[in-house]
Structure to design on (427 residues):
């Protein structure tokens, strides 16, 4: 079917705007209201005291999370960025230690490492799953490597069996950044629960949220205690608690409030429903888009499920004869919202390119705690860089609540653009 593309002045395929994705409902309103009326909005005390572990809603939410995800301990925090910082500290990372992390992630995966004056080392990603590549992890291990930060990007677990085997062989700890994949399964277990410590974001943009917030999960009693200490003024608590190992016992206030935890209890109950919804949308996209030449739909590992925070696609732009940016503009002009090209190449951020983080003199890289010259040059992660620069395109699945009719309209817009690619040759 030939018709003039909207980008060139033709009629747009989609003229309405879609319903905003909103996981918050009446249950959360009532839960928040009850806490406000109780007058106890946070019960935490930053001292060795019965309230060191927070108030009733914090404890209830944490118990439910532990049960839901099948782990021994769940620990709430005021953001997942805080959670990542606590995780890196809790596994006992020392200044100058190297932690391997992918660049294809939200920046906090890497800055949490830097936070403890440890050195992020970037490993490339797998071209099918977009998660950290086990082979690239191996290639980046040095005598200074102490941990791996695996990111379950877009909604699918990293290859944890391979990663845990590497960790075991080299005596490394593993952290799972599962911010984008709550509810996804990896070989029968929830993503995030296979590492030494993992966890989820509860920020406004994720599958379920409490405005801001995060949940740490671990099966390790010692790590759990250290996470609780870092969350809540460790330095003031260790003595009373009788903790003698002071490694990284510099505490913060990473505490999540009672209102958020009360809402989190309702949100957790709905998680399965929301993930099912994203999976349904993805199925419909798969059916509609898999026959488009030069477009690759998402790959899901066998024995895994995908939570589809993002629906990731790859474009063969040479075959299509059109640049990604032009295609995205054409699709946007047809009324498709939620599309993005590129995603992240964290190693190319100014902080890493200029090696200026704490202070202005290159700390920690220029200090003698940094045991070797670590490169952040363009070229160290060719797969992630190629995706970023040329071939990756993602559709944000937690932006809108799309009905089947909406999905079909979006698919129609893709087909219209694909049927009329020649119109874009000179754009
Ligand atoms: C959202 C996100 C974070 C940070 O979570 P916040 O709760 O916003 O601090 C970290 N890593 C990844 C992969 C994320 O998507």
């Amino acid at each position: 079917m030939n018709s003039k593309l909207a980008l060139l002045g033709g009629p747009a395929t989609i003229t309405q705007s879609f319903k905003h994705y909103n996981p918050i409902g009446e249950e959360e309103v009532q839960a928040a209201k009850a806490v406000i009326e109780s007058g106890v909005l946070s019960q935490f005390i930053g001292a060795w005291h019965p309230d060191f572990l927070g108030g009733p809603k914090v404890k209830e939410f944490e118990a439910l999370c532990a049960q839901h995800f099948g782990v021994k301990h769940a620990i709430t925090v005021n953001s997942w960025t805080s959670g990542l910082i606590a995780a890196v500290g809790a596994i006992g990372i020392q200044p100058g230690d190297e932690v391997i992390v992918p660049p294809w992630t939200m920046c906090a995966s890497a800055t949490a490492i830097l936070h403890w004056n440890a050195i992020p080392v970037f490993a490339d990603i797998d071209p099918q799953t977009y998660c950290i590549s086990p082979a690239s992890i191996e290639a980046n291990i040095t005598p200074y490597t102490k941990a791996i930060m695996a990111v379950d990007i877009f909604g699918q677990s990293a290859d944890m069996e391979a990663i845990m085997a590497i960790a075991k062989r080299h005596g490394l700890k593993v952290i799972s950044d599962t911010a984008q994949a709550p509810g996804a399964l990896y070989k029968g277990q929830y993503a995030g629960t296979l590492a030494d410590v993992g966890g989820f974001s509860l920020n406004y943009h994720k599958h379920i949220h409490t405005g801001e917030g995060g949940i740490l999960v671990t099966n390790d009693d010692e790590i759990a205690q250290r996470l609780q200490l870092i969350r809540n003024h460790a330095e003031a608590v260790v003595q009373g608690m009788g903790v003698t190992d002071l490694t990284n016992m510099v505490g913060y206030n990473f505490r999540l409030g009672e209102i958020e935890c009360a809402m989190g209890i309702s949100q957790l109950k709905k998680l399965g429903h929301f993930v099912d919804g994203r999976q349904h949308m993805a199925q419909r996209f798969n059916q509609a888009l898999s026959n488009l030449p030069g477009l690759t739909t998402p790959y899901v590992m066998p024995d895994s499920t995908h939570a589809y925070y993002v629906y990731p696609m790859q474009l063969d732009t040479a075959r299509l004869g059109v640049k990604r940016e032009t295609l995205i503009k054409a699709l946007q002009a047809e009324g498709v919202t939620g599309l993005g090209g590129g995603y992240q190449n964290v190693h190319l951020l100014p902080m890493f390119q200029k090696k200026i983080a704490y202070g202005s003199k290159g700390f920690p890289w220029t200090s003698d705690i940094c045991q070797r010259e670590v490169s952040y040059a363009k070229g160290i992660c060719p797969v992630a860089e190629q995706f970023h620069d040329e071939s990756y395109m993602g559709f944000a699945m937690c932006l809108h609540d799309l009905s089947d009719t909406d999905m079909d309209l979006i698919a129609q817009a893709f087909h219209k653009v694909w049927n009329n690619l020649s119109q874009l040759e000179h754009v």
Q: What stands out?
A: The chain has a mean pLDDT of 97.
